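Hi all, a correction to my earlier message: I attached the wrong file for Protein-serine/threonine kinase. Here's the right sequence:
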Amino acid sequence: MPLLQRAAANSSTALLTCRTAKTYNLSRGRLSFPRQFYRPLTVKSVTDDDIRELAAKPLHPLTLGDLVKHGRPPLSAQALYKSANFTLSILPTRLAHRIQSLRNLPYIVVSNPHVSKIHNNYIHSLSTLLPWAEKEIKTLEDEVKFTEVMADLVHTHGNTISILARGFLEARKYISPKEVTRFLDEHLRARIGTRLIAEQHIALHFSSKPHRELNDKDSKNGHGGQNNDNEPSSSYIGVIDTELRPASIVRHCESMVGDICELKYGVRPTVVINGEPDYRFAHIPTHLEYIVTELLKNAFRATIERGMEREPIEVTIAPLPKDPSVNEGDKGIRNLDQGNLDEASKTIGGTNVIEGNYPSPSAHIRPLEESTPGVTIRIRDRGGGISPENYARIWEYSFTTFSEDQINSTLSDGSPSEGNGMDAFNAITNSQGGSSLAGLGYGLPLGRAYAEYFGGGIAVQSLWGWGTDVYLSLRGVGKIG
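and the right structure:
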């Protein structure tokens, strides 16, 4: 199988094989490249000077607006070149910053084979981008080759989260949980942007007509290729669904998590959706799918283990007001970029209120304009709430309620130990991190990172002995013509 096709097939977050990207289907060979463009990637050795020079440059503050600025597909050849050159202009710097960040860890931690593997993966990806760094993509043939590089990048970093999780757990004697959380909060947020940039260009590539014309030209030489101008228009702009319906994502995640519950516990709670279930906005489906799966997993598990499975889990969908001054009272949910974890964790009577506003160390992450429409999703369960000894630590990447024996079992064989089947990574077919992260304490903080990346957030209100309300807010990209 050709590199781009293989990489996209193996990368479950790539739009090309995503459940929600119905217009892109590589598995049937409907959108294939001419065969003469399949060739090994050109690489250039990466020196320490290259890394220092690139890491000294400021990072472009990615926004959702950057991802849609090239227009709605299918793009013209010129628009596609602009997308490729924009992608090329910002990825090398991002990769160099990640390499430098890894090198700043204690030597004994970087020496861990799993952490070292991630370092080498970033070196490899940078080596495939450097040959393009001093040129401008002006031809369709170059754009095809560059898209191969993007597919290789997505494939190479597909298991970053799970590999880092194993590495930090093995090195946990040499680095504090606070240091791990600080590093991962920055590193994994930066990874979100890097993957988005690459996946966006791949998706725009496959939805653009110039390649169909190239395929038609190639088919005259007996290489096949199809052109279907009668395909219905898509609501997607690359990886962004401009008509994303949160209620549909909730139902899909409910089905997946419910199946896992039924397999593990023999029962499955029900979900009731209220508010405005028909609301639509523009966002990234795979991000919302991961977050909702993780939150429902927690709600389902707590509900079942407390014996409250007959009590439905309530999901309320509420559009955010277009004018942020309309509701100043919910800034704790809508603006999660102030204060710190200690200040955000407080007790009001018997109620624990925990806002996911751990200060982001990534100053290059810029939210969208305050007036951008979005949505708040509340997930309410009767699972007994979060115990006082646990609630203040839920945002730590290394925090887990699993025992040391269960963690060691996961580390030893790379598979979930007994009792770990509820992890959200398994529930969405490992789409964000590859091998299992079950029980390793990465689900909720990673979900918060996805929510906060574009100016949203997560807040948790727990009534110990009763249940938990989780508020997820997301901002969209506004109205797109």
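Sorry for the mix-up. The chain has two domains: 3-234, 240-475.
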